[in-house]
Amino acid sequence: MSTYWGYARISTASQSQNSIEEQLDYLKDQAKKLNCGFEQIAETHSAKNVAGRTKLANLVQNLAKDGDVIGFKYADRYGRETEEDLALLRLLSEKNIKVHINSAFVDYRDPTSKFTFTTLSAVGTFQRELQNQKSRQGIKKKKEKGDWIFTGKLFGYKVVRNSKKTIIEIIESEAKILRFIFEEYAKGDSINHITKLVNEKFNRSLIPAIVRRWILKPLYKGYYLIEGAGQRKGQERIRHYDETALVKSNYYAPIISEELWDEANRSYRGVHRVYARQFEYRYSHYELAGILKCYYCLKETGKATTYVHTWDKNSNSKVYNNYADRTHAKGCGQDIFTFRSSILESIFRTSYYLLFANPIELSHYFKEKEEEFNKKTGDVQGDIDRLEKLLKGVDRKLDKITDYLLEEDADAISLLKKSKIQKDKREQLIESIDKEREIINFQKLDLESAFEEFNENRLLKFIHANPSKKRKIYIQTLESAFVHGRQIKIKFKNKKEYIIPLSLNRGRRIQRQFEIQVHFDGKHQYNIFLDTETDDFRYVRKVLDRIKGLSERDKLFKVAPENKNEEMINGLKMKIKDFVSVESV
Questions:
Q1: CA-atom Rg of the chain in angstroms
Q2: Can you give the pTM of this predicted structure?
Q3: I need a labelling partner for 414 at 20 to 30 A (CA). Which of 8, 91, 253, 585 fits?
Q4: What is the DSSP letter of 146?
Q5: How far out from the chain centre does Cα 112 lie?
Q6: Which pLDDT score is estimated for 52?
Q7: Lowest mean pLDDT segment, chosen from 103-107, 142-146, 226-230
Q8: Residue 222 region, left (φ>0) first, then alpha (ψ -120 to 50), else beta?
Q9: How far apart, in whole angstroms, are the C-alpha atoms of residue 396 and residue 419?
Q10: d(CA 63, CA 58)
Q11: CA–CA distance, 137 with 157 (Å, rounded to integer)
C-alpha cells in the first residue's frame, strides 16, 4: 500500500495552530479516499523558498518512496516561489512520487496539469508580495492614526486582550517609579544618582542605561514617533526630533505630564544640570563656547577640556563676561584659565578674516582638495569595477543553475541550495557596490563643502551672522584651537595657522593688544598687530634676513614682498568694511 504524506504548514509561529490541525484533518480524509496509509508532516516556515523548509526537504529526499503521494490542502502550502516550485515538482516526478493538491493530482509530464500548477504558483507568489505590501501600508496607517500597539513589553504598561478589543492599562507600581525618575531628573539630579535612589527606594536592580532610555521615550507622555516606532529602531535612539513627528496615541494613556516630560527631555538634550558645567553650553548662542581647548589636558588624559562662557562677579558685584575652563585635569600645566569674551572673540574673528587675505593660498588649497578627490575616487572606482566584474560572474552562475534546473536528470535540491548561496553572494556584492558609491558621494560633498567654506560669500555671511551661526562656521572651518602654554594656536582646514603669544593678566592690567604670527602650510609668512578694543588690525613690517635661494612656492607663501603683504591686508580691511556696510546677506 502506498503512503499518503500529508504536509501542513503555517508561515509564522504567531499563527493559530488550528490551521495546522484543519489542514491535517482534510489531508487524512483525502488519504482514506485514495485508500492509502497516512503519515503527517507539519512545520512552521515561510513559503519564500523551498530550501529553508527542512522537514519538506527531508520528506522528499529520505522519507517518500516510489509510488507514494505527498498531499497539500492548498497550492500556497506547497510554495510561493514559481521557479523553485516547478523544480521541486520535476524532482518528485522523476522519483515517481505523486503530488496531490486540493483533491487533484499534479503531473509534471502533462502540459495542462503543469500549466495549471504554474498559474496557481504564480498567483501564490503575487499574493505573498501583495500581502507584504498591504501589511506595510496598514502598519503605516495605524501609526499615523495613533492606533499602533507596540509588540514588545513596555515598562509601566500592560496589554489586556479580550474578544472585543485590546486595552492598554497602566501598571501603577511601575508608573510610580517613572514619575519619581522624571521628577528627580527635572530637578537636575544625574542619571547615575537617580538609578541608585530607585534601586534603594523601590528594591530594583536597574542600570543607568535603562533609566536613560525611559527618559527619552515620548510614549510616557502619550505620544510616539511614526518613524522609529518599530522593532528595528527604538524610540530612545532618536533624541533630536521635530515635535510635528510625534503622534498622540489612542491606546497609551500618559504616565508623565507633557510639561514634566518636555522639561526633563530639554534637560537631557542641553544637559542643564548641576554637575555638568561644561556641557551646559553645548547648544548655547555664544560663538566660542567649546571651541578653544586645553592642550595639556588632551596630552595627559586624551580628552581635552574646553573653555566655555561664564559670568563672573567680583567682590564689588561687578559682572564680567568671560570664557573660562575650570575643569582641567589633575596635574595640568595650564596656568591661563580665563579670557575676556570680547578679547578672545576679536582674536578668532581676525584670524578668520585673514583666511581671505591671499586668494593664491585659497586656490592652492582648492587645487590640493581636487587632486585628493581625484586620487580617492579613482581608487574607489577601481574597487567598484572589480565588484561589478564579480557581480557579472555571479549572474552567469545563476543563469547556468537555472538552465540545469530545466534538465531532466538535475538534482533540484542541491541546485536550489547553490542558487540560494549565489543569490546571497549577489546581494552582498550589490550592498558593497552601494557602499563604495556612497563613499564617492560623500567625497563629492566634502569637496563641495571645501569650496563653500572658503569663499567670499561665506565671509559675507560670517560678518552678518549671529553668535550661534558664527560658532557653526568655526566648527566647519577649524581643524584645532588650543591654549598651549602662554600661546593660543589656531589652525584652519586650509592649512592656515595662527600663533598668538599671551602675557599673564595682573589685576586690572589685561592684555588687549596682540601680535599674531601668521603661518601657511607650516611656514611663517608675516605678523599682524591686533588691537581688540577697536577690532583694528594692521600688517607689521619686518626685515627679512634671507631671500636668496628660496623656491618660487616659498616666495609666494612665505616671503612675499612686504609692500605686497601690506597691500593684501589693506585690501582685506577694505573688503570687510564693504561687507559690513551691506545691510542683508
A1: 36
A2: 0.48
A3: 8
A4: T
A5: 54
A6: 67
A7: 226-230
A8: left
A9: 11
A10: 7
A11: 26
